Amino acid sequence: MVKIKFRYYFLGLIAFLILLLVASTGWLQPTQATNQVRAGLLIATPGADQGTLAAYGAVLREEGFPWAEVGPGDLNLSPRELVARYPALILPEGLNQVLPSPVPRVLTDYVHSGGKVLLVYDPGTSGAGGERLPEPVLAGLAGVNYGPAPGGDQQTYDSGYWQFSTPQVAASWGITPGKLDRDNAVSSYGYGRLRYRHVRARLLDARLIAFDSQAGLNPVITEKSYPSGGSVVFVNIPLGYYKQMSDDLALRSIVRTFLIKYAHLPRLVNTPRGKGGLVVNFHLDSNAHIGPLRAMIQRGIFRPDLQYSIHITAGPDTYRPGDGYGFDAASPFKGRPWVELMQRYGAIGSHGGWIHNYFAANLEKLPRQEVWRYLALNCDTLAAITGQPVLEYSAPVGNHPAFVNEWLQQRGVLAYYSPGDTGSSPTRSIFYGRQVSGSLWSFPITPYQKYAALEELMAAGVPLVEVKGWFDDLLNFIEEEHAIRLIYTHASKKEYALAALAYLANRAARDQEEGRLLVWPMSRFASFLNRHEQAQATFNRGPAGWVIKLKNKAGLADLTVAVYTGSHRYRVTGRYLTWWQEGEWLYITTIAGIVENEIYLRRLK
């Protein structure tokens, strides 16, 4: 009997010591009540503009932000409780022109309690009967009057620009290096400075961040901060409209900056392991691009540790059938050895349909069956040589009508390079309000002003030192923003191109070795993004810390959450995790292919 009692005493002592150890190391989850933290997308007029709502929802999902659509009735909480549940409220354009009478007061109390509000273009500009108000009901809260000009002038102007004082300010707002012209106005590949729709606005007591100098420093982005820590950002651009017109960066850059840098909202980072991602996309159009490959290998541009997207037009012709100027991938004496060799340096993708220039010029004139035949010839030839399915595509001369995506999806292609949405992240592209990419991921070109490929930069006389500076700025941006960007060019043995690409390769290889960057083909990133969009993440915060729950039937490996810690330290517990602190943000990655995980962050005193 004594032995039995001693055994129970001994086991109880062990259990007590284990519990003490667990409690002291923070393995127990926070026991206090928690709030699920999300951004609120305020919709005062349901059904008013489903296209705009879909555009905002798409970017929020792709970026991994927790969010919910809320109506005026959902704001019927105490200001502090509202801030705890929704640290950020976004009022999209077109969906909040008429605000019910309690809403302005609720938003004012919310901001004075530390809440963050993003006002886009026109919230609170109309009365209950649809009449235009002389001053928006939120003008005072925003510190900017974005209503009619004095004297009742209802004029708006539709051709303004979007400028920043410096490239550094633009980058801090998510504008990719290379997207500004010489006057720091947002520009694009082939077009130069872009025009955006603005209303005539007048600063009251907000801080000016971006402007249109064409109209006497008309405000484009403003910020008003409050002693409570609350803030109001006003953006004088209908962001959802431009997302629907193949300009994704306008909406994405503002939403990301607001939610990350102002609201400090946690997120499921949309890059593998939370690292920055670079896609270098080489287009090999014809036999003129065979000769330079040897010189590029010798200069260390092609190297096994950097995996590129290498897209080839595989036929024997280029300008017209029978001209013999093609890459001729099937020929053992011409293109085939190079296809086999280039496999070492990334993914072999399809560049158009068999005859580069001819296909691009006639794509929309040819019968669809002929288009499908050329596309199949190109993909099947490359797949037969590599023994791998073709998972990537790029359009010759950028000619990519939406119907091509129907065929690409059927063939299992995952991603394509796009001349639309320039400078932005991989996305599901929308054009004229219609989602055109289907299940494919569109990888937009990152331009340098109105140029993209190195031969264009050479022809424009852009100094080599300037190109190297752009590469440095771009990689810094990718790594700091934890974002994916694509640049493209062609094979070249000109010293300008060799020097520029060798510089990029050396910098990228170093950063990848140091764990800040991933240089992958677009199809590999697309496979990750397909898993990312299937993941479910909830973020619950209480006085003791955070409880984060993750689910994904496709597996959680390499999925990363980012949580703002400020000046505080947290103890992280959970299964199969690795983490690191970067400034005021904690990044936590699941390193196993499990389908569910719980992460606990206990705040240390």
What does this structure look like?
This protein has 605 residues and is α/β, with parallel strands linked by helices. The protein folds into three domains: 235 residues, Rossmann fold, CATH 3.40.50.880; 251 residues, TIM Barrel (Alpha-Beta Barrel), CATH 3.20.20; 69 residues, no CATH class. 32% of the residues lie in helices and 25% in strands. The chain is built from 17 helices and 33 strands. It has an eight-stranded mixed sheet, with helices on both faces. Strands 17, 18, 19, 20, 21, 24, 25 and 26 form an eight-stranded parallel sheet that branches. Strand 17, helix 9 and strand 18 form a beta-alpha-beta unit. Helix 2 packs across helix 8 and helix 15 runs parallel beside helix 16. The N terminus is likely disordered. One of its GO terms (biological process) is carbohydrate metabolic process. InterPro entries: Class_I_gatase-like, Glyco_hydro/deAcase_b/a-brl.
Count of folded domains: 3
Name the CATH architecture of the largest domain.
Alpha-Beta Barrel
- What would you give as the CATH superfamily of the largest domain? Glycoside hydrolase/deacetylase
Give the percentage of residues in beta strands. 15-25%
Q: Number of helical runs?
A: 17
Contiguous low-pLDDT stretches (5 residues minimum) are 1-31
- Helical fraction equals 25-40%
CATH topology of the largest domain: TIM Barrel
Q: Structural class, from helix and strand content?
A: alpha/beta
What is the CATH C-level name of the largest domain? Alpha Beta
Radius of gyration over all CA atoms, rounded: 27 Å
The N- and C-terminal alpha carbons lie at a distance of 46 Å
Number of E-type strands: 33
Mean pLDDT, to the nearest integer, reads 93
Order of strands across the widest beta sheet? 3-2-4-5-15-14-13-8
Give the overall shape.
Answer: globular
